[in-house]
Amino acid sequence: MKVKFLVQEIRMTLPKLGTRKLYHLLKEQLIKEDIKLGRDALFAYLKRENMLIGKQKKYIKTTFSKHWLKKHPNLLKDLKVEKAEQVFVSDITYLKTKESTCYLSLVTDAYSRKIMGYSLSSNMNTENVAKALKMAIKNRSSSDPLIHHSDRGL
User: Fold this and answer.
1) Residue ranges per structural domain of the chain
2) pLDDT reported for residue 150
3) How far apart are CA 140 and CA 137, in angstroms?
Protein backbone atom coordinates (compact mmCIF):
# COMPACT_ATOMS: atom_id res chain seq x y z
CA MET A 1 0.00 0.00 0.00
CA LYS A 2 2.92 2.33 0.71
CA VAL A 3 4.24 1.75 -2.84
CA LYS A 4 0.89 2.74 -4.32
CA PHE A 5 0.93 5.97 -2.31
CA LEU A 6 4.50 6.78 -3.41
CA VAL A 7 3.63 6.13 -7.06
CA GLN A 8 0.47 8.25 -6.87
CA GLU A 9 2.43 11.07 -5.25
CA ILE A 10 4.91 11.18 -8.16
CA ARG A 11 2.21 10.69 -10.79
CA MET A 12 0.35 13.76 -9.49
CA THR A 13 3.12 15.95 -10.89
CA LEU A 14 4.35 13.62 -13.66
CA PRO A 15 1.25 11.72 -14.85
CA LYS A 16 2.81 10.20 -18.00
CA LEU A 17 6.03 9.02 -16.33
CA GLY A 18 6.92 5.48 -17.34
CA THR A 19 7.84 2.69 -14.94
CA ARG A 20 11.62 2.73 -15.58
CA LYS A 21 11.93 6.43 -14.74
CA LEU A 22 9.43 6.04 -11.93
CA TYR A 23 11.56 3.29 -10.41
CA HIS A 24 14.65 5.49 -10.67
CA LEU A 25 12.85 8.23 -8.72
CA LEU A 26 11.45 5.80 -6.14
CA LYS A 27 14.58 3.74 -5.56
CA GLU A 28 16.02 5.80 -2.65
CA GLN A 29 12.61 6.13 -0.97
CA LEU A 30 12.02 2.37 -1.25
CA ILE A 31 15.41 1.67 0.38
CA LYS A 32 14.69 4.24 3.11
CA GLU A 33 11.29 2.64 3.79
CA ASP A 34 12.95 -0.84 3.75
CA ILE A 35 10.72 -1.97 0.88
CA LYS A 36 12.41 -4.63 -1.21
CA LEU A 37 11.08 -4.03 -4.70
CA GLY A 38 13.11 -4.20 -7.89
CA ARG A 39 12.25 -2.65 -11.24
CA ASP A 40 10.64 -5.80 -12.65
CA ALA A 41 8.62 -6.31 -9.48
CA LEU A 42 7.46 -2.68 -9.73
CA PHE A 43 6.31 -3.39 -13.30
CA ALA A 44 4.37 -6.43 -12.07
CA TYR A 45 2.88 -4.48 -9.14
CA LEU A 46 1.76 -1.58 -11.36
CA LYS A 47 0.25 -4.05 -13.83
CA ARG A 48 -1.69 -5.79 -11.04
CA GLU A 49 -2.92 -2.43 -9.77
CA ASN A 50 -3.80 -1.27 -13.31
CA MET A 51 -1.40 1.68 -12.98
CA LEU A 52 0.81 1.17 -16.04
CA ILE A 53 0.95 4.02 -18.52
CA GLY A 54 -0.17 2.97 -21.99
CA LYS A 55 2.15 3.41 -24.95
CA GLN A 56 1.39 6.45 -27.05
CA LYS A 57 1.48 6.41 -30.81
CA LYS A 58 4.55 8.48 -31.63
CA TYR A 59 3.86 9.32 -35.24
CA ILE A 60 1.22 9.90 -37.82
CA LYS A 61 1.42 7.77 -40.95
CA THR A 62 1.83 10.09 -43.95
CA THR A 63 2.71 7.45 -46.53
CA PHE A 64 0.55 4.67 -47.89
CA SER A 65 2.37 3.27 -50.90
CA LYS A 66 0.52 -0.06 -51.23
CA HIS A 67 -2.33 1.53 -53.15
CA TRP A 68 -3.94 0.37 -56.40
CA LEU A 69 -3.16 3.54 -58.35
CA LYS A 70 -0.50 3.62 -61.06
CA LYS A 71 3.03 3.65 -59.66
CA HIS A 72 5.62 5.24 -61.90
CA PRO A 73 9.04 3.61 -62.18
CA ASN A 74 11.86 4.79 -59.90
CA LEU A 75 13.99 6.93 -62.22
CA LEU A 76 16.58 7.51 -59.49
CA LYS A 77 17.51 3.83 -59.09
CA ASP A 78 20.67 4.03 -61.26
CA LEU A 79 20.98 7.81 -61.56
CA LYS A 80 23.83 9.79 -60.05
CA VAL A 81 22.65 13.29 -59.16
CA GLU A 82 25.46 15.61 -60.26
CA LYS A 83 23.98 19.10 -60.28
CA ALA A 84 21.32 21.31 -58.77
CA GLU A 85 17.80 21.22 -60.20
CA GLN A 86 18.34 17.82 -61.78
CA VAL A 87 16.06 16.02 -59.28
CA PHE A 88 13.33 17.37 -57.01
CA VAL A 89 12.20 15.17 -54.13
CA SER A 90 8.80 15.54 -52.46
CA ASP A 91 7.61 14.44 -49.08
CA ILE A 92 5.01 15.26 -46.44
CA THR A 93 5.68 15.56 -42.74
CA TYR A 94 3.44 16.57 -39.88
CA LEU A 95 3.73 19.23 -37.21
CA LYS A 96 1.77 18.96 -33.98
CA THR A 97 0.45 22.16 -32.48
CA LYS A 98 -1.63 22.66 -29.34
CA GLU A 99 -4.78 22.91 -31.45
CA SER A 100 -4.26 20.28 -34.15
CA THR A 101 -1.92 18.51 -36.53
CA CYS A 102 -0.67 20.36 -39.61
CA TYR A 103 0.88 18.81 -42.70
CA LEU A 104 3.92 20.30 -44.41
CA SER A 105 4.49 19.36 -48.05
CA LEU A 106 8.07 19.97 -49.16
CA VAL A 107 9.81 19.84 -52.52
CA THR A 108 13.58 19.74 -52.09
CA ASP A 109 16.43 19.85 -54.59
CA ALA A 110 18.18 16.47 -54.19
CA TYR A 111 21.63 17.87 -54.97
CA SER A 112 21.73 21.12 -52.98
CA ARG A 113 19.03 20.08 -50.45
CA LYS A 114 17.49 23.50 -50.86
CA ILE A 115 13.76 23.67 -50.22
CA MET A 116 12.33 24.77 -53.55
CA GLY A 117 8.64 24.70 -52.64
CA TYR A 118 6.41 24.16 -49.63
CA SER A 119 2.80 24.21 -48.50
CA LEU A 120 1.35 24.01 -45.00
CA SER A 121 -2.21 22.80 -44.46
CA SER A 122 -4.57 21.15 -42.01
CA ASN A 123 -4.97 18.05 -44.23
CA MET A 124 -3.06 15.88 -46.69
CA ASN A 125 -4.99 16.81 -49.83
CA THR A 126 -3.24 16.58 -53.18
CA GLU A 127 -3.86 20.30 -53.73
CA ASN A 128 -1.27 21.13 -51.07
CA VAL A 129 1.36 18.87 -52.62
CA ALA A 130 0.57 20.43 -56.01
CA LYS A 131 1.01 23.94 -54.52
CA ALA A 132 4.46 22.98 -53.24
CA LEU A 133 5.43 21.50 -56.61
CA LYS A 134 4.19 24.57 -58.52
CA MET A 135 6.20 26.81 -56.20
CA ALA A 136 9.30 24.65 -56.76
CA ILE A 137 8.92 24.80 -60.54
CA LYS A 138 8.42 28.57 -60.37
CA ASN A 139 11.60 28.91 -58.27
CA ARG A 140 13.74 27.01 -60.80
CA SER A 141 16.57 28.92 -62.44
CA SER A 142 17.37 26.18 -64.97
CA SER A 143 15.42 24.90 -67.95
CA ASP A 144 17.30 21.57 -68.04
CA PRO A 145 15.27 18.35 -67.80
CA LEU A 146 13.98 17.65 -64.30
CA ILE A 147 12.95 14.47 -62.49
CA HIS A 148 10.33 14.79 -59.76
CA HIS A 149 10.58 11.96 -57.23
CA SER A 150 8.32 11.02 -54.33
CA ASP A 151 7.77 8.00 -52.08
CA ARG A 152 4.69 7.13 -54.14
CA GLY A 153 2.36 7.57 -51.20
CA LEU A 154 -1.20 8.75 -51.61
Assistant:
1) 2-48, 57-154
2) 81
3) 5
